[in-house]
Design brief:
With 141 residues, the protein is mainly α.
């Protein structure tokens, strides 16, 4: 399965965890039990979701620094999920380039978010990427 499709699952899982206060394992299994996903794809999804949850306080603190006129708690749940996943991938993974991560986040916002979500997500992540050198060291994939 393509990574874009897998990221759609990740956003749905992160959304469910945040909105319904579901345990990550429960959200993971309730969504993916219904779908045919290959074992290595499941590992990819699980690693990203668990990684995002394990680093949530650092990720949220960083996102909060780049929200102009907003607080993290005021963001729509789906925008928050997209930002969290993208920031996790930018900071804690090495297998996807910054450009791809940013593009994927904007595309996810087009699918799941409101009309203004893609522009908002792009602005927050673009600002974050420009101001944090560690995210510019990603390899191109």
């Amino acid at each position: 399965m393509k990574r874009r499709e897998l990221r759609k699952y990740m956003i749905q899982i992160l959304f469910q965890i945040d909105l319904a206060k579901t345990e990550p394992s429960e959200a993971f299994h309730s969504l993916l039990d219904e779908e045919e996903v290959l074992a290595n794809d499941l590992l990819f999804v699980q690693e990203r979701v668990e990684g995002t949850q394990n680093h949530l306080s650092e990720i949220d603190a960083l996102i909060s620094k780049f929200l102009e006129g907003w607080t993290l708690t005021r963001l729509p749940y789906v925008d928050r999920a997209i930002l969290r996943l993208a920031v996790y991938e930018l900071l804690y993974t090495k297998d996807t380039s910054m450009k791809v991560i940013l593009n994927e986040a904007v595309e996810l916002a087009k699918v799941f978010g409101a009309d203004e979500s893609p522009k908002f997500i792009n602005g927050v992540l673009g600002s974050l990427a420009r101001k944090h050198g560690e995210v510019s060291n990603q390899p191109n994939t």
